Amino acid sequence: MAPHVQFLKMNGLGNEFIVIDARKTKPQLGADAVRALSNHQTGPGCDQFITLEKSPAGGDVFMRIHNADGGEVEACGNATRCVGRLMMAESGANRAVIETVVGKLIGYRCDDESMVTVDMGVPKFGWQDIPLSEPFEDTRVIELQVGPIDAPILHSPSVVNVGNPHAIFWVKNDVESYGLEVNGPLLENHMIFPERANISLAQVHNRSEMTLKVWERGVGLTQACGTAACAATVAAIRNKMTDRTVLVHLPGGDLTIEWREADEHIMMSGGTELEYAGEIDLADLSWRKLPAGSVE
Ligand SMILES: N[C@@H](CCC[C@H](N)C(=O)O)C(=O)O
Q1: pLDDT tens per residue, range 88-108
Q2: Residue 225 Cα, ligand 1 centroid: separation in angstroms?
Q3: What is the mean pLDDT of residues 290-294?
Q4: Are 11 and 117 contained in the same domain?
Q5: Of 46, 76, 82, 230, which residue is the catalytic one?
Q6: Binning pLDDT at 50, 70 and 90, where does residue 292 land?
Q7: Which residues does 268 contact at the CB level (< 8 Å), separation at least 6?
Q8: Residue 272 CB–ligand 1 contact under 6 Å
Q9: Which ligand 1 atom is nearest residue 47's CA?
Q10: Are residues 199 and 151 in the same domain?
Q11: 200 in ligand 1 pocket by Cβ < 6 Å?
Q12: Is residue 76 part of a domain?
């Protein structure tokens, strides 16, 4: 086994990723190693640890996703754009098929190499699909609240599965004013979500614009969350709050989300950044940046 593994540090609107190419050799990195490398004190630091593997079903690549807490998850919108960028740079094509545990996603190159659009597939709304621990006939708004019973701080979220579980709380004021750093962990781990959930606060400004703040499952507050932007847009459309294309403002930048009427696929467009290449010593998980242009 190779004593070192190279990685790329990338981000999508400040949502940070370590990307390892394991298509030829798969390094043995368990949950403890993922946690150590994802931590900014002990590793390069990231929100998701991404492993690229050979595609078992005819895609360009298989993308495995681990949250910073070491848990494997089903979907990551911003990482899909970053991996799409890498695959299209590698092949020179304008399209890349990225497989995940929940299916194939298709990335498309925009005019600028750093801008990528991804087809995130079709959202699910059934309570068993989210999943929720008890039946709700209508998931456009469910009964759930935090704070005093007669004056809740947050209440009545919409729930959507876009590959991973999301709950979106609709707020009237600035998303910063609801203490998501305190309420986020309580809601992520609420018994109504048997697989936990990503928690968003969404302030809808008009028919085509909203601001979103996200507490990501297995990570915490992040600069951006692509799947949350998809889930919030779809939920807003179902609740007749917006039209079918929405500009979503996140702390790290903007995403454009379109929920296509014809086939119900969600299209997500936004920036990606390739920060640097690095190398991890597998014996002790120490790491270093590599000089620009030195990665195979
Ligand atoms: N950063 C992501 C979402 C990553 C997974 C999420 N934390 C989960 O546990 O489902 C994105 O851009 O979508």
Answers
A1: 999 999 999 999 999 999 989
A2: 6
A3: 83
A4: yes
A5: 76
A6: confident
A7: 77, 81, 117, 118, 120, 226, 229, 230, 255, 256, 257
A8: no
A9: 1
A10: yes
A11: no
A12: yes
Instruction: State residue 99 phi and psi, 5-degree precision.
Output: -90, 145
Catalytic pick among 46, 82, 110, 225? 225
Residue 164 CA, closest ligand 1 atom number: 10
* Whether residue 82 lies in the annotated active site: no
227 annotated as a binding-site residue: yes
Q: What is the CATH number for 99?
A: 3.10.310.10
Q: Is 41 annotated as a binding residue?
A: no
Whole-number Å distance, alpha carbon 1 to ligand 1 midpoint, is 30
Supply angle C-alpha 174, 180, 182, rounded to 5. Answer: 140
Residue 1 pLDDT level (bands cut at 50, 70, 90): low
136 located within any domain: no
Instruction: Please say if 76 is a catalytic residue.
Output: yes
- Ranges assigned E (strand) in 34-102: 48-53, 61-67, 72-73, 95-100
Collapsing DSSP to helix, strand or coil, 183 comes out as helix
Does 226 contact ligand 1 (Cβ within 6 A)? yes
State which residues form the domain around 35. 4-121+272-289
Number of domains in the chain: 2
Q: Does residue 132 lie within any of the structural domains?
A: no
The complex's ipTM? 0.99
Q: What is the pTM of this model?
A: 0.97
In-domain check, residue 131: no
Instruction: Tell me what the mean pLDDT of segment 219-235 comes to.
Output: 98
Task: Report whether 217 belongs to an annotated binding site.
Answer: yes
Is 15 marked within a binding site?
A: yes
> Which of these, 257, 228, 254, lies nearest to 242 by C-alpha position?
257
Residues 153 and 238 in one domain: yes
Q: Hey, how many other C-beta atoms are within 10 angstroms of the C-beta on 209?
A: 14
Same domain, 254 and 168: yes
